[in-house]
Amino acid sequence: MRCTGWIAGVVILLGGLGCGGPAWYVNRDLAGPGHVLVGYGQGETMAEARADAAREIAESLGVRVSSTGEVVREQGSDGASGSARFRVSLVSRFVLDDLTPVKHGKAGGTHFVALAYDNRTFMQKLRDGRMGDRASGYVPASGYKASLPFSYSLSFLGIFPDDYRVVRRHGGWAMALEGNVYPIPPEDWFRQLFVEKADNQGLRLAVTPSGVLRSGRCYRVFLSPPHPTGYLSLYHVSESGQALTLMDNHPVTSSAPVAYPDERHYSGLEAIATDGNGSRDMLLATWSQEPMESPVTPPPVSDTPWPDTDARTFSYGDLLDALKDALWASRFVWIQGW
What we know:
By secondary structure, this protein is an alpha+beta fold. It contains nine helices and 17 strands.
C-alpha cells in the first residue's frame, strides 16, 4: 500500500508538471478579432510573464531595422558619374505599446498571462477611432508638417496638421490626437519622415558628394537663402528618428550660398553607422524671418536603434511645429559603416 501511494503521488506530480499551466495557456485557444495578436507568457513574477508574452508578440512582428545599398557607376555624355541605390528594411523593432491583458492565472508558483496586441495599421486605427463628423478633404497648408505624406492621407479622415502632435513614447514615436495616443510603427514612420525637396521658393540645399559617404568623412553642405535677411537653420535627422541635431542657426546678411564644411558638424553621421549596414539620414534646412528657438537638447548616446527606455527630452513634433511658418528644404544623405 505504501508503494502504491508513492507511485500514485509521482503520477499526480508528473501530471501536474506536464500540463504546463492552465488549459487556456496550454491550448492557446483564446480567440479574438482577426487583427488582434495574442501572446502567451509565463514567469516567476507577473512582470516576467508579461515580458515573455510581449516577446512572443514582438517575434511574430519582426525584430530588425537596417539599410543596404550599392553604388552604381554609369557613363554619361559628360563623363563617368555615380549613383546610389539603397533598400531600407522596414521590419519593426521597438518596444510594444498598448498591450491589453486577456487572461492571467497562477499555478505551482508560476504566473501565466495572455496579452493582446492590436495589429491594425496605423491608418486603420485612426479611421476606426476618429471622433466626430468633420468634413474631409485636403486643405493646402505651409510648413514641413503639412507636407508629410500622411498629412495628405489624414486630411481625408478629417484630421489636419494642427489637430495632432508627434511625440516620443517608449523609445518610438506616436501621434497624440483628441486625447488619444497612437503609436506609429517604424515602417510607417520611415515613409513619413523623409521628404526630399532640394529647392523651396528660393531656399536651396545642395549636398556633396551626392552618393555614399564612408565613415570618417563628411558631407559638404551649401545653403542659399531666398532673401538677404532672416535666419538660416540646419538640422540632421537620423533614419530611425533617434538623433535630431541642430547643426547651425545664424542670421543671414546676403543671398550668397553659405557653406558648412566643418567636420565638427558631422560627427553624428559616423556615430550612427552600425554593423556595416549603414543608414539613410536627412539634412533639413530652414529659413525664417525671425530666429527659431531650438526644440533640441543633446540626447544621451544609445547603442541600439530602439532602446527599452528613452530619456531624451526632444520631440520631433516640436520641430514640426516650429517649422510651421518657415521655408524648408531637405536632402537625403547616406552613411556606410566601413
